[in-house]
Amino acid sequence: MIESNGGAGPIGPDTHVRLARPTRDIAAAERFYVQGLGLSVLWRTTERVSGEHDLLMVGLPGGAWHFELAVDPENPVEPAPTVEDLFVLYLGAPVDEALIERLVAAGGRRAPAHNPYWDEFGVTVVDPDGYGLVLCSRTWG
């Protein structure tokens, strides 16, 4: 069991977190996460530089996390999602059907969850690369 050190160590409640994933198509990922989900573009590459990845970072301005989607055009990594690769958002309220409709219109696909817990307490929408986004009606903590 890992015990909390009370925030005295290098990792605390304000530590910024980056979740990074490969994508086949940054434009499709942006439509899904920005137009569909409502996140903001925090940063992106604006020009192609040989040897560097194309990046899109989305999240909430001022938030302690961001979500990075990356493409290496010279050595592409094919996304390889499994049924347990989930990006879960704890909304603390029933999932709005209009949000689900926006995500589907932005390239997502509503899908049953592999774990029935997520169907009981939320909705899973698969992003354009096949990764699951769970909109959970519960709160965390």
Helix content: 10-25%
H/E order of the elements?
A: EHEEEEHEHEE
Number of strands: 8
Low-confidence stretches: none
Derived structural class: alpha/beta
**Please, how many helices?**
3
For the biggest β-sheet, the strand order reads 1-4-3-2
Rounded mean pLDDT score: 92
What integer value in Å does the Rg equal?
16 Å
Describe what this molecule looks like in 3D.
With 141 residues, the protein is of the alpha/beta class. It contains three helices and eight strands; from the N terminus they run E-H-E-E-E-E-H-E-H-E-E. The strands form two sheets. A four-stranded mixed beta sheet has the order 1-4-3-2, with helices on one face. A four-stranded mixed beta sheet has the order 5-8-7-6. A hairpin with a 5-residue loop joins strand 7 and strand 8. Helix 1 packs antiparallel against helix 2. The protein starts with 16 loop residues before the first strand and ends in a 5-residue tail after the last strand. The model has no long low-confidence stretch (mean pLDDT 92).
